[in-house]
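Data availability (excerpt). The following record was deposited with the supplementary files.
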Amino acid sequence: MIIFKSKLLFIISLIITIGVIIGFSITIMDDFFPDSAIQKRGEIYSESFVKVAQHVEEDLISLKNILDTTAFFDYSIDDQIKFLMRHLQGNNELQGIMVITHSGRFSTLLRDKKTFIYTTDSASNIDNVTWYRVNTELKLLNTWDMVLGYRFNFFSEKEAILLQSPQFEQAQWNSTNNLFGSSQINLASHITWKKKDDEILTCVVTLSEENIGGHKRFFGQNDYQSFFVNIENQCIPLHITDLISVDTTKASDALYIVAKNSWEVTGEKIPSTYSFNYKNEFWWGQAVSIPIDGIEGIVLNASQKSLYYSSITEHVIELVLIILFIVISVILYLRTKRGAHLSLEDFIKSQGHDKHAIELIKEGESSHLEFKSSFHYDYHLQTVNKDLESVIAKSIAAFSNAKGGTLLIGIDDDANVLGLENDINTLKRKDIDFFENTIRMYLNKIFTVSFITQNVRIKFPVIEQKAICRIDITASHEPVFVEIVKNSRKSERFYLRSGNTSQEITSLSEINDYVKDRF
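Predicted structure:
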């Protein structure tokens, strides 16, 4: 039987799947070494950063070459926005661009979702600037003023992003650190040079750590922390997991501070591998040297637990096998669930001919065997006739009150096999399972659930490529009555098997005598 085979295959597939998962877990545990795992992740993370950084530096050099021969600050505001927007749209990794002269003039354009915000000024001491929000067609959407409260000073403030010498004409990396009046810490790279007219110009581009995609294959948002070390030996946070209101770059118990201090205690070596405890959890760090001007190295920190789970990705074959067996198990499970809902045609194909039922039909109707053409389909009227259902109930009661017997539905009085097709076609769901449910619901209503459960067995043999319904009834231990409704009046009837027919006994004294002798 197809259903049985599906169940067997499902069990076998499930056992294999569980075995593969157990074996996979053991292999992971045997092959996992956190020091090796953090080294691999550190290399991948740094390679991802280098790829993005090189692209950003190429864009900076391109901007420098254009600005070197352009009177940018002589442009109108619209032309300045167009110029900066063209470069932002050409590099999706960039979040913003800022052009600054060392005499104090500046122009800034930042992405903000599907719009851009822009500001410009010519003062070296910035107390207040006006921001403009525009769409990609330069349509003005809104304006507002913002007090920035900082001075552009490129040479004295240690934390300033533009600290490098004007003669150093290579891209350098740092943090935005409130450069645009926002508390959000993003990455920034800048290049400073002297133009042919002796004007000192700086171009700054910013990008979010989210654009560094290598970590997304291994860690969740809060499962790692990273920073880079610039040429001044400053640690600049790349990704901070501490989601707290205070400045996580200064709070003594912040993960960034703990990780940075741990790296510094171990000698600030690049490359190096180190470990530390953070909030009762073991963490690992990896410092990697990278070939980017202005950056000495990248430091990645991850919990040992997250390293373990991320190492699963290295076992591709095992993962594919597990997924394959899970898919097979699900398909087989669904097939076994659907097996009970096979269409009549599919059900017949899935069954072999029932030789026992064939021999039983050959015996003909008797005191222990009765044929019924249908459950409720009237072959004469060619429609549903609910009165026929009560005939089935009478036969079951008659067999139960006698010595038991078998009722075959789908066989006419001349032992011709009619099948259940006409009965099933009258149902809203045309399958064997729903037909059985329909019969059981009717019998439960006429008799009781306990009686049907204990005394009635229903099967569906296939004969001559047709399904019939076989109902085996055992002898009851107490009299069984059938409630008949006629002309809105209910009455209980007592039936008994006599020869090859089900007879109603109407005499109360006769019923009492039979019940007394039989039960």
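Summary of structural features: The radius of gyration is 42 Å.
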